[in-house]
Every structure is written in C-alpha cells, then in structure tokens.
From TrEMBL:
PANTHER family: GRANULOCYTE COLONY-STIMULATING FACTOR (PTHR10511)
Organism expressing this protein natively: Mesembrinibis cayennensis
Gene Ontology biological process terms from the UniProt entry: immune response; positive regulation of myeloid cell differentiation
Major subcellular site: secreted
Protein name stated in the entry: MGF factor
Listed Pfam families: GCSF (PF16647)
Length: 185
C-alpha cells in the first residue's frame, strides 16, 4: 500500500522549511517513543514470559484490545490532514491505554509515565503543526477506545499489557513510515 503515497497532494508544503523541520524532529521523537515501547516490551517478556504474539492469539480473542487504525496514512488517496489526524488521535488513545501498562508494571512507572507524556507531547506537536499550516483537523470516532479494558484475571491483564504495547509498536512503525514519506516529498 505504500506505493500509493507517491501521489500525495502536498506540493504546497514540500519546500516549506518549517514543515520539513517539523517532520524531521517528530520522526526522531517517534523513533524515541518506539525505543521506549520496545524497552517496555522486553520488561513484559522478562517479567511475565510473554514474548511471542502468536502464542497469545487465543487469549487475545477474549480481550477487548483493538489496534488503533492508521489506514489514512497508507490509503490510495493519501491526504496529510487525514493521516496527521489519525496519528494524533491514535497517540491520544494509546496515552490512555498505557494506564493499564502502568498498573501492570509499577516498578517501571517512570518509563511508562515518560511514554505517556511523550505520546501526549507528540500529539500536541502534530495538532499545533496542523493549525500552523492551516490544515483541516479531523477527529476520528474513538468509541470504546477511551475506556480501559476490564481484565478478568491478572493473566489477562498481563496479556492485555503485552498487546497494548505490541499494537502501539505497530502504530508507531506506520507513523514513522508516513513521516519519512512526507519528509521525502
């Protein structure tokens, strides 16, 4: 699906130095957040021996943890506004769901809290840049994504934390690809 991005209608922004600087800074920030998520994934692996997603797929069916969508960042009719809006909204959703990880890993509270702060800051950066560029902001429905899942057991909580982090990592990988693509335009 990434080949479709070559037709992205951003010619008016491609030479904008401020926009390019924004993209570079936030690409680095997104990479930093990805690294912190990977660190927490290793903690979950080491602490609970939950390391392989394919081993947990059956348990996942019992949990209400959805992947936050980013289809606007790799759709055939790619638009920066829609992609940025989905990244911003997804970061807000993960900011909230990281509370379940915080409960799960109280010994790593400072890293989880830093990750929450970084997700909030990146979301704010994107919102501010969209406003500065005069891009239309779109808010995608977040039904059911703001509430933390209720886990029926500590094992389900552990698996839930695993999937929250795994989904966040995939979300950040897609966000990085979109930011890298926009920086090349």
């Amino acid at each position: 699906p990434w080949r479709a991005l070559h037709g992205a209608p951003l010619a008016e922004l491609s030479g904008d130095q401020d926009f390019q600087l924004f993209l570079q800074k936030n690409l680095e920030f997104t990479r930093k957040i990805k690294g912190d998520v990977a660190t927490l994934q290793r903690v979950v692996c080491d602490t609970f021996q939950l390391c392989k997603e394919e081993e947990l797929l059956l348990v996942r069916q019992d949990l209400s943890i959805a992947q936050v969508p980013l289809e606007q960042c790799h759709s055939l009719n790619f638009q920066a506004e829609a992609c940025f809006s989905q990244i911003r909204d997804g970061l807000r959703a993960y900011h909230g769901s990281l509370a379940a990880v915080l409960e799960l890993l109280p010994g790593d509270a400072s890293l989880v809290e830093t990750l929450q702060l970084d997700a909030a800051n990146l979301s704010s950066n994107i919102q501010q840049q969209m406003e500065d560029l005069g891009l239309a902001t779109v808010t995608y429905p977040t039904e059911g994504r703001d509430a933390l899942p209720a886990f029926s057991s500590s094992f389900h909580h552990q698996v839930g934390g695993f999937f929250i982090l795994a989904n966040f990592q995939r979300f950040l990988e897609t966000a990085c690809r979109a930011l890298r693509h926009l920086a090349r335009l």
